[in-house]
Amino acid sequence: MIVKDEEKMLPHSLKSVKDYVDEIIIVDTGSTDNTVAVALDFGAKVYHRKWENNFATARNDSIKRAKGDWILILDADEILDNGELLLELVKEADKTIDGYLLNIYNYSDENKTHMERNAAVRLFRNRSDMRFFGAIHEQLPIKNKRMAMTNLIIHHYGYIPFISQTKSKSKRNITILLEEVKKYPDNAFVYYNLGGEYARIKQYEQAFYYYKEALKRMDEPTGYEARLYKMIGIVGIQSKKWKETISVINQGIKKFPDYPDLYYVRGLLYDTAGNEGHAIADFKQCLAMKQQKFKGNNIYVIEDGITSYKAQYALGNVFEKKGQSQEAINAYASALKSNLKFKEPFIKLKRLFSNHQHLIKFLEEKILTNNENIHDRLNLAQLLYDIDDYLLSLALLRKSNENNLQLQHFLLKGLNYFHLNQFAKAIEFFSKIKKQQEEYSIMLPYLVVSLWMSGKTYQAKQLLAKASDPGNAYKQTAALFLTIGENKLKKGINRFPESNRLEEAYRQIQRMKGHVKQ
Amino acid sequence: MQNVKDVADEIIVVDTGSTDHTVELAEQLGANVYTKQWNYDNSAVKNYAIEKATGKWILFINTDETIDKEDVEKIPDLLKNPMVEGYLFYIQTFIPSLKAYLKTQALRLFRNREEYRYQHKVFERIPDELINSVQDADIIVHHRPNPNQFLKREEQKKQMLEQELKEYPEDSYLHYVYGVSLINRKNIPLSIIHLKKALQYVNHNQIFASHLYKILTWALIKDKEYHQAIQISSQGLHHYPFYTDLVYMRGKAYHQIRAYRQAISDFERCLQLGDAPSSMVSEEGLGSNQALYALGEVHEELLNVEKALSYYKQSYQSNNQFAEALYQIGRLCTQHEKLGEIDVVLQDVLDKEHPDELMTLIDILTIEKKYAKALGYIEKMIEITGINQDILFVSGICHMMLGNHETAEKNFSQISDGHPYSDHVLLRRIQNFWFQQNWQGASILIKKVNSSQRLNPSTKLVYTTLQSIFTNNYLKLSDLDLEGYNTLAKIIEYLLLMNMDVIQNKILDWLLQSKEGKLIIPIGEIFAKQRKINAVMYMLEKWKDKESKVNFIEQTSKWFYQQGQMKEAVTLLQSIQEESLGVLGHYLLYRTKLYLSLDVIKAGIRSKKVEKEMKKQLVSMMELILNEY
After folding, report:
1. Using N-to-C axis directions, what is the helix angle for A470-495 and B583-606, rounded to 10°?
2. Looking at CA atoms only, how far is residue A341 from chain B in angstroms?
3. A255, B160, B451, B553: which one has the fewest Cβ atoms less than 10 Å from its Cβ?
4. Which helix (H) or strand (E) holds B401?
5. Nearest C-alpha of chain B: how many angstroms from A271?
């Protein structure tokens, strides 16, 4: 693992592997925080190395120091999903296999709703011919090697905007990549990555340019070619070059006719260009396809939901634009049903139903078709809570079967009542969660605040003092009060934007929160 | 007649059957008096008078009307303009029941031509289609109807008007006049119906049309129909875009529904426009000091208190007759201590060396209950002017409220009965006895109150009822008018400041019968400062006026908050839907949470269960919040 200033993420990452590996090797490239201390805590061997704008050499340096037969490559913002499986793979590996492809799930928002999957060689034999090249997005030489696909998953959080921004990763990467371009002007992969970095910081014109340059230099089949077409489509929408982009995508579809993402992107392009008929056809095509990972030598990078909820949602949008509300409602409902964590189609549905009761009835009849499935109901109620629709969330929870209520049920009910300022009710449901239960520590600050707000200060303080980690409980309760205050203020500012006093107060709390975070 | 006779070649008086000395008096003043039988037809009488006139111009005036000398002198020049056929005068009517002036416009001076004849039996007028080239004369007719006859006349007018309306149900002017007369009779809902009818049939060239929009907007605001008021005034502004009064009214309506941005923009527009052109019925200052004052009020509600202060100051500076702005500054400073002490804040607009201005300052300090400070300035005042009765009065009040009851009585008793405030002195002396629980002393003075000519009936009722309550003779707590409740509210404030009970003996209940919540809000403040949450909750339970309830909760909660009584502040804020809270409410929602957050951190720091390392974190968190706090 190569690290720099990762004290926050590192413990999670190391925790996920420490019981399944013989040694942990970390190359630190100049951390100024507690990264090294954290690594040592986990028993890692830490080496220091000056950062030379090159991931490949740094990685190779770390591999060089490894003593085992197999190498697992992991980053500080990644978490291994199932360590047991890792052990099995290594134990039962066929001698002819040189390495394994692991599934990488990339999350781009904090709620983990937007996710992109790809596969990469992360587990391979410790041999001198298995060494990295490429300054960023370093690759292993896989030509003529035997790689096998696995079910092993790595969760990658590096592209959640908040995290990337604080590290200004993209800017750093661009500087490195621009140097690389000078060194290897014919290397398509460098251009491809440069396009990706520009896309990430929303400079779509540049992204479009570099992606197309990558396409020009594509002289042999590569694993990322299909995704390159898709990315051209996505940045093409943003930079409004619809016509040109559509013709590039058509080219891509000819080459990769079974890659659903391309139809999806073309549908979006048609939609923004105003050609609704073609858009509908493309989205319907997506829905008729299956997600697949391999086609010949191509490893498709698959975006979750393209063949189901995302296409259905996109379809709903087109129908709504055309004024076909009933079709739109059906499409949104299918999208929501395929993914109960997907907020957008619900928000659209809510707008199409002016009557609260009708909406509830619709949700009961069309979405929660299986009445026994408390999990679905809970997920949907959670979604409603997340978008601040507490009354509707409670309405759904109220209909659940009282006999097999789960703890999350109580928690969610309590939280809904909490946000509706009905503290007595909130206390009632929070109190059903017992101290030894996992949800207790999440719930405790809310319970304390509820007690406080209903005048039961003494009880509230007692609870804090008796918490298993009192320090954290005090801290979290204080932070919760701040967050509530901030929310009230936000509401006030939305209603009365002319008040300088409220605005001043808002800046004040932003400063406080900034400090508290530090 | 006295003033107009200098410019009139002849004065024609038509008598419709007086039994007093009217005819003789008119003849003595040189009028030609004619008699005509009264047939309930104003037009017939007026046309009869015109027939008798021999001059080239007609000027109409009624016996309860006067025109100022300066205005009369303008008339000869007006007659020289060959382009004009008639002139509009303002009629400023004093309405005894409302204690307010109503200003309208009417054709009172016009050429003596055969075609210019009055029509309609009541609210007679020469129709617009008969006379062209009418101009505004900028002359005011002061109309002071005899208060004893006013209501009777209004009733008469009403009946006649109703007859007319039956005959001409689509006559815009009749509906307009009827609507206005209904406002005089305080029947706002019905007046709105007629004013809307008037609007339905109006022709926008008619001279009363602009005023119709204004008065309808005014009535809608009175009736709390703010959205309609905005709609009507906007419609009016489409026709009369420079009518400042209408812009101002719309601004007020926007303010009421808390559409602050629009309100600010309307009041700023008023300032751009200045007062309305003289061809329209307008009130003074709406394009200057009144608009500045209104901007101050908006910003005060937005808690932009420095801005509010600056607008109030500008308001006074643009018209130094407008002392309301100064009193408002006093109130603002009391509400927001960070602005500084009242006398310091007023330093740059009030000249303390000038006795009148110094007296204003003393008065403001007394109203804001800064009695000790007021006494300081009273000494300064004595240095400048020596002792006089005004000074004795105000210093008596200060001493009384500071508990020096004997000094107060000494001061009050030195004021002579002939003093213009002598009735108020009497009332203060009664209070002074009450505060000393000297019911005997008060009872003698109460008799004097009852025989006073000048005190109004509701004030008398308040004082006698209170005296009977104090002496355990229970009297019925009858409903009061606005002024009565106002008097009662002030007394309750003083009683509370003197730590006397107002709940057990039902005095507070009496006040809570009032639907005018604004009066009662200051009492919440006193209870809050005395940390009596139960009393506040009791008031809230009995609260009648929906509109002021939010205000009461916000203000009272603020005082609890300022004393660090979060539990009480939070309880109050929770007693109402969060959505209905205004700027202050939202600000308090935030500040109370901030305070509670600190409270939790402090508890954590004190707790023995928290480890050292964690305590360090909590301490630094506390410091960060306190730093901003």
Report:
1. 170
2. 29
3. B451
4. helix B389-401
5. 38
| Interaxial angle between packed helices B566-574 and B533-541, expressed in degrees from 0 to 180 and rounded to the nearest 10 | 10
Nearest CB among A448, A482, A501 relative to B302 is that of: A501
Flag if A484 and B598 touch (Cβ within 8 Å): no
Which residue in B550, B590, B595 has the most chain A C-beta atoms within 10 A of its own C-beta, making it the best mutation to test that interface? B590
Residue with tokens 């006859």, as numbered in its chain: B149
Q: By three-state DSSP, how is residue A442 classified?
A: helix
Whether pTM > 0.80 for this model: the answer is: no
SS3 label, residue B17: coil
Q: Give, rounded to a whole angstrom, the gap between the first and last alpha carbons of chain B.
A: 70
Q: What is the mean pLDDT of chain B?
A: 90
**Cross-chain Cβ contact B590/A448 below 8 Å:** no
Q: Do A474 and B591 touch (CB under 8 A)?
A: no
Which of A12, A13, A152, A24 is CA-nearest to residue A83? Answer: A152
Q: If you ran DSSP here, which 8-state letter would residue A185 be given?
A: T
> Which residues of chain B are within 8 Å of residue A497 when distances are taken between CB atoms?
261
Q: Which amino acid is at B458?
A: S
- Tell the residue number behind the tokens 């382009």, with chain if given: B83
- Tokens standing for residue B323: 């002392």
Tokens of A180: 């690389």
* B71 SS3 class: helix
The H or E element containing residue A174 is: helix A169-183
Taking only the tens place, the pLDDT of each residue in A141-171 is 766 777 777 788 898 886 555 444 544 677 7
Cα–Cα distances in Å, from B163 out to B94, B150, B158?
26, 20, 9
**Alpha-carbon separation of residue B547 from B253, B446, B515, B581, B585 (angstroms):** 14, 36, 10, 11, 14
- B388 and B410 in contact (C-beta within 8 Å)? no
Q: What span, in angstroms and rounded, lies between the C-alpha atoms of A382 and B379?
A: 70
B503: left (phi over 0), alpha (psi -120 to 50) or beta: alpha
The shortest CB-CB distance from A470 to any of B307, B590, B610 is to B610
CA distance A63 to chain B (A): 38
What digits encode the pLDDT tens for the residues B12-35?
999 988 888 888 998 988 899 999
The span from the CA of B176 to the CA of B199, in Å, is: 8
The alpha carbon of A354 is separated from its chain's Cα centroid by a whole number of angstroms, namely 32
Q: B600 and chain A: CB distance < 8 Å anywhere?
A: yes
Backbone angles phi, psi at A331, to 5 degrees: -65, -45
Longest Cα–Cα distance in chain B: 107
Handedness of CA B120, B123, B125, B128 (dihedral sign): negative
| Chain A contact residues (CB < 8 Å to B) | 421, 448-449, 452-453, 455, 457, 461, 464-465, 470-472, 474-475, 477-479, 481-482, 484-486, 488-489, 491-492, 495-502, 505, 508-509, 511-512, 515-516
Q: Please give the Cα distance from B522 to B536 (Å, whole number).
A: 11
Q: Interface pTM (ipTM) of the complex? A: 0.80
Would you tell me how many other CB atoms lie within 10 Å of the CB of residue A257?
Answer: 11
Each residue of B246-260: b (16+ CB within 10 Å) or e?
Answer: bbbbbbbbbbbebbb
- Closest listed residue to residue A399, CA positions, set A409, A414, A389: A409
pLDDT tens digits along A375-425:
888 889 999 999 889 999 999 888 776 666 678 889 999 999 999 989 999
Decide if A457 and B261 are in contact by the 8 Å CB cutoff: no
Task: Give chain B's length.
Answer: 629
DSSP letter assigned to residue B277: P
CA–CA separation, A246 and A240 (whole Å) = 11
Tokens 């149900």 sit on residue: B169
Contact between B524 and B539 under an 8 Å Cβ cutoff? The reply is: yes
